[in-house]
Each structure stands twice: as C-alpha cells, then as structure tokens.
From TrEMBL:
CDD domains: TTHA0252-CPSF-like_MBL-fold. Gene3D superfamilies: 3.40.50.10890, Ribonuclease Z/Hydroxyacylglutathione hydrolase-like (3.60.15.10). Residues 258-386 form the Beta-Casp domain. InterPro entries: Beta_Casp, MBL, Metallo-B-lactamas, RibonucZ/Hydroxyglut_hydro, RMMBL. It comes from the Bacteria. Pfam families: Beta-Casp (PF10996), Lactamase_B (PF00753), RMMBL (PF07521). Residues 4-242 form the Metallo-beta-lactamase domain. The keyword rRNA processing does not apply. This is MBL fold metallo-hydrolase.
Length: 469
C-alpha cells in the first residue's frame, strides 16, 4: 500500500508538508507535496531548523501548490541539504518563487547579521541562516513548470495534474493519481482555495473524482462579508480621510492583497470617486510582484480585467494614473514630507517591520491619519496590537501614540469562506475520504461539523499521522 504522512500544516496554518510513499513491485518512491516554512514565534523557528536528514537523498520529486512561503519557504533549505531533483509547479508559481525566496533570503541575511553582531559582543555562538541566496538560485534552477490541466508523469507511476485554485497567481489544486495495492488511487489536495468573489483571480476549479481529499480550512468557521459592502466601506474611509486632510496608510502583503487594493483604487478612480491625487506603492517587493501580475495578466480573471480595460480605454498605463511606485529608500523618505491627501501602501502586511513602520513615525500620531487594515494580523505582531486597540506602540526604538483612526476591513480575503469550502467539497461525486489541513484546531472543528450537516465526513489529522491510500 502507498501512504501519505502529515508532516506540517496539521492543526495550524503554516508549514505545509506531506510525504507520499509510493509502493510498487518491491520498491518504493518518495514524493514531497509542499515544503512550507513555519511562521510565527519561537516554536516556528525551531521547527524550521530541524534537518530533513536522509529524506534528502531518498526524494524523487517535490510538488508545490503555490508560492506563498508557508507552502514553499523551506525549499532552499531542502536544496542546501543536498536535494537536486525536480520541483514541479506552475509557471506563475515559479515566477513568484523567484521574487519571494530571494526576498526571504535577503531578509534572513539581514536579521542574522544583526543578531550575530550582538552575539559576537556577548561571546555567544554565531547563528547560521536556514539558506542563502545561492541556495535560492539553485532551487529556482530545479523548478519545472507546467500549465494547468496537463498530465505530468512522475516516478513510481504517479500522474500529476494542476488545476487553478484561484488564490494567488499560479496557485494550484494538486491532483495525483497514485498506484496503491494494485489499484490507482486519486488524491486531491486543495492547496489554498481562493475566495471566488475576490478580484483578479478566477474561481477555484471544482474537481469531481477523488478517493482521498486534503482540504484547507483556514476560514472554515465563517463566511466573508460580501465584496460590494467591503468596497463601499473602503471607499467611505478614503473619502473621510480626504475630508479630514490626513494620509491613508495601508499595510499590505506584497502578493495578492496589494494588487487587489490597486485594482479597487483604479476602479474608484475611474468612477471619479477617488479624491486622493497620490497613491504610493512603497515596497520594492510588492512593485516586482505587481509588475509580474501585469505581465501574467492573461492568467487572471478576464471579467475583472475587462472592467479595468473599459475604465481606462484599454491603455494599461491609465489603470491608475495617480500611482507612484517608489523603489529607492530616497523616494520612500521623500513621502515623509507629505502631510495629507496621499494613500501609502507599504509592507510589512502585519506591521512587524518594513517601510510601513517608517510611515508610522510620520503619520500615526496625527488624528487625521487613517490606518486601514486589510489583511490578517497574527498574534504578537504590531498590527495585531493596533487592531486590539493599543494606545501606544513601539517601533524603531521609539514609542508612538496611536492617534490615527484605525479601520479594519475584513472582507478582502484570498481564501474561500465556509460556504465556499463546503460547496467545493460537495462537488466530489463518489464520497472520497476527507482530511482537513491548514487550519486552527477550533476552526477545523466548526468546519467538520458544518460538513457533517452536508453528509461529508471529514477527519482532522494530527502531526505525523500516516494513512494508507
Ligand atoms: Zn496561500
């Protein structure tokens, strides 16, 4: 019998990793599905440091659903430890990996340098990064990209097909046909399923046949607010900010959320509803990703692009004429002189670093400023402290009073909500076995109960659990 072992993103949302062992004619083949980074806190750091060990020499192939680091961020470490086989992904994922893994290595190098300076002074042992830029380059050279819908033959008689998951550029649902006990078993891994009502991405494809399904459950306990309401809420915050004469700060994730926000700003602009005359995209990484989304626009939702094209008479330079992309530190610092009337989009998405905290220094203590939170804020981050109502925060060694008005707009999610997950799960015809992954334990229990009402029985696997296919 072939098996699958749950090695990560079990009862949590990061560190995706599943090991598939294909059994046939007295030998076996090992495939790794996902190779994600654990994120958030000391435990995560420790989990990331655990060596892959002998698996590195035994692996035949890696299959990747999409480029987010919690799914891909340990690939360069696997390669640094010696893995030289193929990494199968879509073209969009390959292109995003280049930007994201390079950035990850760069940030890691800077953090380690800073930490090691302190360690040297205090005669402590120096730290090693998980990987460096050379490992990233090597990783990218091992990526093999495939279009959606095309069967790919892997060792051990396994067939792979990617389907559009509608989550971020290149994101895929992974379908694997695996020989097991003399039969062909079909395993479907949802990857991260997109929110069908969000802009730019297509709807997640439905799949109808499977023996076994691994389904994500990030938002398994709730439905998102309808998009129209969210856009109206966003528009009215921008309008009030303009009337008050303050700047609008939007901390945003570089991949997906930034492009979505720019889309909505563009639509508002062409409707004559955007009063601000300056929109800054102040994040070199988000600029790179935005340019990639533009180059790869054929893969995006044609209906959404039609809206943009119509508004701007087909001239892409006119999508958002008030947009300024600031790459250099000098350009970024020049924004500090603008006291009001601008919208500033910058990373990090959870305000735990990046250029956004510099903008905090100049804007957060002004009551006319609006801070618009459009993404998830994990526990322990500055963003979370602000959302939870902190009156003071500490950034860049400085105490700041939070006098700006803070608006949390929850409707811009890149993940399917509960009803959408149940709808996707309900499309399978022959009652496959369901396993919920990539979700917090409480959320998973709520989704499990909701699925049961639709006659779908789902299990919640634990770390290290191994199942037969
Ligand atoms: Zn994702």
């Amino acid at each position: 019998m072939s098996t699958l072992t749950f090695q990560g993103a079990v009862k949590e949302v990061t560190g995706s990793r599943y090991l598939i062992e294909v059994d046939g004619n007295g030998r076996s083949w090992k495939l790794l599905l996902e190779c994600g980074l654990h994120q958030g806190g000391v435990d995560a750091d420790r989990a990331n440091e655990v060596p892959f060990g002998k698996l590195v020499g035994e692996l035949e192939a890696v299959v990747l659903s999409h480029g987010h680091l919690d799914h891909s961020g340990l690939l360069p470490k696997l390669v640094r430890e010696g893995y030289r086989g193929p990494i199968h992904c879509t073209r969009g994922t390959r292109d995003l990996l280049e930007i994201m893994l390079q950035d990850a290595a760069f940030v890691m190098a800077k953090d380690i340098e800073w930490e090691n300076k302190w360690r040297k002074r205090n005669a402590k042992p120096l730290l090693e990064p998980l990987y460096e830029i050379d490992d990233v380059e090597q990783t990218l050279s091992q990526c093999v990209s495939h279009p959606y819908g095309q069967p790919v033959h892997l060792p051990g008689g396994v067939t792979l097909v990617f389907r559009d998951a509608g989550h971020i550029l290149g994101s895929a649902i992974v379908e694997l046909t695996i020989p097991s006990g003399g039969q062909q078993k079909r395993l479907v891994f949802s990857g991260d399923l997109g929110n069908p009502s969000s802009v730019l991405m297509k709807e997640p494809e439905k799949v109808f046949d499977a023996d076994l399904v691994l389904m994500e459950s990030t938002y398994g306990d709730r439905d998102h607010r309808p998009l129209e309401e969210t856009i109206e809420e966003f528009a009215s915050v921008l309008e009030e900010a303009h009337a008050d004469g303050g700047n609008v700060l939007i901390p945003a994730f570089a991949v997906g959320r930034t492009q979505e926000i720019l889309y909505h700003l563009s639509v508002l602009y062409h409707q004559g509803r955007l009063r601000q005359q300056l929109v800054f995209l102040d994040s070199p990484m988000a600029i790179k990703v935005t340019e990639l989304y533009h180059r790869a626009r054929k893969a995006l939702d044609p209906e959404d692009l039609k809206v943009l094209n119509k508004a701007s008479s087909g001239d892409t330079a006119q999508y958002l004429p008030v947009l300024r992309m600031t790459r250099t530190v000098e350009e970024s610092m020049a924004i500090n002189r603008i006291r009001g009337g601008a919208i500033i989009i910058a990373g990090a998405g959870m305000c735990n670093g990046g250029r956004i905290v510099h903008h905090f220094r100049y804007n957060l203590e002004a009551s006319a400023t609006r801070l618009v939170i459009v993404g998830f804020q994990a526990g322990g981050t500055i963003g979370r402290q602000i959302v939870d109502g902190a009156e003071r925060i500490r950034v860049l060694g400085q105490d700041l009073a939070v006098k700006a008005r803070v608006h949390t707009i929850g409707g811009f999610s890149a993940h399917a909500g509960q009803s959408q997950l149940i709808g996707w799960a309900g499309a399978f015809r022959n009652h496959p076995r369901f396993f919920l992954v990539h979700g917090e334990p409480e959320t998973q229990k709520v989704l499990q109960a909701a699925l049961a009402e639709s006659d779908i029985e789902a299990q919640i696997p634990g770390y290290g659990d191994r199942i037969e296919l």
